[in-house]
Amino acid sequence: MRPPLVLTVAGSDSGGGAGIQADLKTMLALGTHGMSVLTAVTAQNSLGVQGAWELPVDAVRAQYRSVVDDIGVQAVKTGMLSSAELVETVAELIGGTDAPAVVDPVGVSKHGDALLAASALDSVRTKLLPVATVATPNLDEVAQLTGVHVESDTDLRRAAAAVLEYGPRWALIKGGHLHGDAVDLLTDGSQEHWLRAPRLDNRHTHGTGCTLASAVACGLAKGQPVPEAVKAAKAYVTGAIEAGFALGGGIGPVDHGWALGRDASSV
Ligand SMILES: Nc1ncnc2c1ncn2[C@@H]1O[C@H](COP(=O)(O)OP(=O)(O)OP(=O)(O)O)[C@@H](O)[C@H]1O
Ligand SMILES: Cc1ncc(CO)c(N)n1
């Protein structure tokens, strides 16, 4: 039987923990067919981002059309978009596609390296967020986009309201950078869903945000309602963080294959 079709529009992480690589691994682990539109290439590892190169707008547009016009998509996820021009191109493409879109408004890497130009923030607010089914900012991205600084769980409500002002159907505010339990808030302005997981004492968390957003897109491609897709995605990312492993000299990746069998010799 054909698996659900999910498309990621994001940058490459050469280290394999975040970006397109995290997205495609998540899509495989969750039983979907993953496809990709590459927006940028980064030279990246467990220590940080050593370089980044954008693809031309025409190359992004052509990849998207190749996938959507022939194969089709049941959900789209966006990640690193790098520039205002790429943000606007991708927003226009998604706006013209009849599939739910999970927008992860990636701003900086875990090491603080910029993955989005400051000049692109306004395009994210006014062009990309309005076409999102679910927007999944972390706390730094919320602060950059809305000016709301979250210091406690209760501030998550204010942050979500500020994000919803820009027009996404749902906001999923990730409280992963707070202390205490890892609490996220999902809301569409009327329903509220609090997603709580114990804070795992594992520094190998490279790629958590990409993984969560991709897992949400997988659930949506399977036809799940947003709250159900987000709950399943939270369980998947929590398991992946728990199994995160050391790699290189810095922050290792989450383990996307944690829920799969590992005995390659039996294949
Ligand atoms: N130490 C942790 N233990 C448990 N859950 C965590 C931990 N750190 C993050 N999470 C969860 O992981 C998910 C991703 O959140 P996070 O805030 O890390 O995203 P992010 O900053 O966008 O990630 P990145 O930019 O590294 O890809 C959220 O559900 C968050 O609550
Ligand atoms: C390419 C890429 N996309 C997203 C992230 C998010 O952290 C990253 N580190 N690298």
TrEMBL record:
Pfam families in the record: Phos_pyr_kin
CDD domains reported for this sequence: HMPP_kinase
UniProt keyword ATP-binding present: yes
Protein name (Swiss-Prot/TrEMBL): Hydroxymethylpyrimidine/phosphomethylpyrimidine kinase
Known pathway: Cofactor biosynthesis; thiamine diphosphate biosynthesis; 4-amino-2-methyl-5-diphosphomethylpyrimidine from 5-amino-1-(5-phospho-D-ribosyl)imidazole: step 3/3
Protein species of origin: Streptomyces ambofaciens (strain ATCC 23877 / 3486 / DSM 40053 / JCM 4204 / NBRC 12836 / NRRL B-2516)
Class of enzymatic activity (EC top level): transferase
One CC-aspect GO term: cytosol
Source species, domain of life: Bacteria
UniProt entry keywords in alphabetical sequence: ATP-binding, Kinase, Nucleotide-binding, Thiamine biosynthesis, Transferase
PANTHER family, per the entry: HYDROXYMETHYLPYRIMIDINE_PHOSPHOMETHYLPYRIMIDINE KINASE THI20-RELATED (PTHR20858:SF17), PHOSPHOMETHYLPYRIMIDINE KINASE (PTHR20858)
GO BP term, pick one: thiamine biosynthetic process
EC number: 2.7.1.49, 2.7.4.7
Reaction catalysis annotation: 4-amino-2-methyl-5-(phosphooxymethyl)pyrimidine + ATP = 4-amino-2-methyl-5-(diphosphooxymethyl)pyrimidine + ADP; 4-amino-5-hydroxymethyl-2-methylpyrimidine + ATP = 4-amino-2-methyl-5-(phosphooxymethyl)pyrimidine + ADP + H(+)
Function: Catalyzes the phosphorylation of hydroxymethylpyrimidine phosphate (HMP-P) to HMP-PP, and of HMP to HMP-P.
NCBIfam families from the UniProt entry: HMP-P_kinase
Single GO MF annotation: phosphomethylpyrimidine kinase activity
Stored InterPro entries: HMP/HMP-P_kinase_dom, PM/HMP-P_kinase-1, Ribokinase-like
Domain Pyridoxamine kinase/Phosphomethylpyrimidine kinase: 13-255
